[in-house]
Specification:
The structure holds 2 protein chains of 2 kinds. Chain A is built from 4 helices and 10 strands, in the order αββαβββββαββαβ. By secondary structure, chain A is mainly β. The radius of gyration of chain B is 22 Å and the shape is globular. The chains are: A mainly beta, B alpha/beta.
């Protein structure tokens, strides 16, 4: 636990976003929570997550740890991409007007015609809002940082270097496989809401803008820059 | 038991030690090949356009005394795919270059890219390589559209023109046919792979943009160009110029995923006094039917030649057939 909290503290030096984190409506108070979500965050994403309240373990109120898996929906048959996260959240001053802070370590795998990539990073989010006993509405401000990504370039990328010179040479200077430093960052600004229709069931959702620093600010081109919005709904069982 | 401050120090030291071993996405050559100003071994010239001198990757083939023939590549491309046309160097002085901001030519800023500057670029090269003579043009895709734009602005500077699958030559045609040509399907796994890459490598630099654009070339489903969308023919390219592609879309009036386009490359084409050849592949949405319906009426004299069993990348699929069609049109082969 100390290691996790310490790592989270280190990552907290740099803000980073939120598609990984469960949209908790209220503290778990040493209970368990397992849920699934679906929405658009870069692409259609299916999430599976587990949370556990650890107030007694850490001696603080409103603390929970969580872990989960996100899968880009249409890539599931290809089994070539995922995101794992591990981290925690804390409710401050809830119930009533309060704040939820969350930070997570993330690991992301991508596999596409340019090659395979494994990213290590972190996410940090703040959700100031109103947290009643069985519902909540909050603003979401979040940042997501890929700290470093290992890239295994594909043969297709290597081919870019071939035949560059009039004598047909050039391929030997190919792309560099290895770790790339700070290759991606994204920021979220949105609204999150949660509702507990019963003590054991929770519904939640979030919607907002997704900003990624790009050449010329935001690339207004869906094919290259992506879609600058995110939305996700989630259902969870508590016990 | 390790105390917290000790562990934090250890982690910090590990991170700092690993820093020098990390690559930067922006260093030349890491993700995509270095461009001409970064690599003196590339054949190149200095070209001043839109008030800025830039290094342009260029090669010529054939005798300088032959009639000049310029090759214009399309979007996310460079002249690598046009190299089969060096065979025309037996009768023409063939000039191929990576248009500014594309391929191995130097990258440019947004203020340097306009349709006026594209015309200026072709005209500057004509002055330098054609000695003031009219040039013959062979353009592919957006290169064909720019060939038409140049003919529209300077018909007296153009001798012959081969337009290989240009998309709509004005905003009206482009808008009306956009959905017939482009298919941005948010449930496509290929597009999902493109977007998911943003998690670990975002288009925050020109180099990362170019790298990401390679996925667009590999996605056979985003354009109705191919005989087999699951296995589009590999398009030979050194560097897809993503920033230029983005800027061009903005100049045409494009929004996030299409919208209404506002440009006119066709004005005055009906006064061009000689025959123009349009070429289309039977598998492409920009094929012979499209060219006959939308573009033939724009010219006083235009003919459509069909490449059977080929799509938009016909230079890869049927290079010999394309050369036969082009030679059948060019005057020096008659």
């Amino acid at each position: 636990m100390a290691l996790v909290l310490l790592a989270l503290g280190l990552l907290g030096l740099r803000p980073s976003p939120a598609n990984a984190q469960p949209i908790a409506a209220s503290p778990l108070e040493n209970a368990n929570r397992a849920g699934s979500g679906f929405g658009w965050d870069q692409t259609w994403v299916l999430t599976l997550g587990y949370s556990r309240g650890v107030d007694q373990l850490v001696g603080l109120d409103g603390v929970q740890v969580d872990a989960g898996l996100a899968l880009p929906l249409t890539q599931i048959p290809r089994a070539n991409a995922f995101k794992l996260w591990l981290g925690g959240q804390r409710f401050w001053s809830a119930p009533g007007f309060g704040l939820v802070t969350a930070s997570h370590l993330t690991s992301v795998l991508t596999n596409d015609p340019t090659g395979r990539k494994l990213g290590l990073g972190g996410e940090l989010s703040l959700r100031p809002g109103y947290y009643a006993a069985d519902w909540s509405v909050a603003l979401e401000v979040a940042g997501r940082l890929a700290l470093s990504t290992y890239i295994w370039h594909s043969e297709r990328v290597r081919d870019l270097y071939a035949e560059r010179y009039p004598d047909g040479s050039g391929a030997q200077d190919g792309p560099q496989d290895g770790w790339y430093w700070l290759p991606a960052a994204r920021y979220h600004l949105g609204v999150a809401a949660g509702w507990l229709p019963s003590r054991s069931f929770e519904l939640s959702g979030v919607i907002g803008f997704d900003y990624s620093p790009q050449v010329e600010g935001v690339i207004d081109n869906a094919s290259i820059g992506g879609v600058p919005f995110y939305i996700r709904g989630e259902g969870a069982y508590r016990w | 038991m390790v105390n917290r401050s000790g562990l934090a120090t250890a982690l910090l030291v590990m991170a700092l030690v690993s820093l020098p071993q990390c690559y930067s996405t922006t260093d030349p050559g890491n993700l995509v090949p270095p461009t001409a100003e970064q690599d003196p071994r590339l054949p190149q010239i200095t070209l001043k356009v839109a008030g800025r001198s830039r290094q342009v990757h260029l090669q010529t083939f054939g005798d300088r005394e032959n009639p000049p023939l310029f090759l214009l590549h399309g979007s996310l491309s460079d002249f690598r795919a046009l190299l089969p046309f060096q065979a025309l160097g037996d009768r023409y002085y063939v000039v191929m270059w990576d248009q500014r901001g594309n391929g191995l030519s130097e990258r440019i800023g947004s203020e340097e890219y306009s349709f006026d500057s594209v015309v200026e670029e072709i005209d500057e090269l004509r002055s330098r390589y054609a000695g003031g003579r009219p040039v013959s043009l062979i353009g592919h895709s957006f290169g064909a559209m720019y060939s038409a734009l140049y003919m529209s602005r300077h018909p007296e500077h153009v001798d012959q023109a081969v337009l290989v699958e240009p998309a709509g030559l004005n905003g009206e045609i482009f808008t009306d046919t956009f959905n017939d040509v482009i298919d941005i399907d948010l449930f496509s796994p290929e597009l999902s792979e493109t977007y998911w890459q943003n998690e670990v490598l975002a288009p925050s630099s020109h180099e990362a943009m170019d790298y990401k654009a390679l996925l667009l070339l590999e996605n056979g489903h985003q354009t109705h160009y191919f005989c087999d969308a699951d296995h589009p023919p590999r398009w030979p390219v050194w560097r897809p110029g993503a920033f230029v592609e983005y800027r061009r879309g903005k100049l045409m009036g494009a929004g996030l995923s299409g919208g209404s386009f506002d440009f006119d490359f066709a004005k005055g084409l009906d006064t061009f006094p000689r025959k123009v050849l349009l070429i289309g592949g039977t598998c492409s949405a920009l094929g012979p039917d499209f060219q006959s319906r939308y573009h033939v009426p724009l010219f006083a004299d235009a003919e459509v030649d069909t490449i059977q069993g080929a799509g938009h990348r016909m230079f890869v699929e049927k290079p010999d057939d394309v050369l036969v069609a082009v030679r059948g049109y060019l005057r020096e082969y008659q």
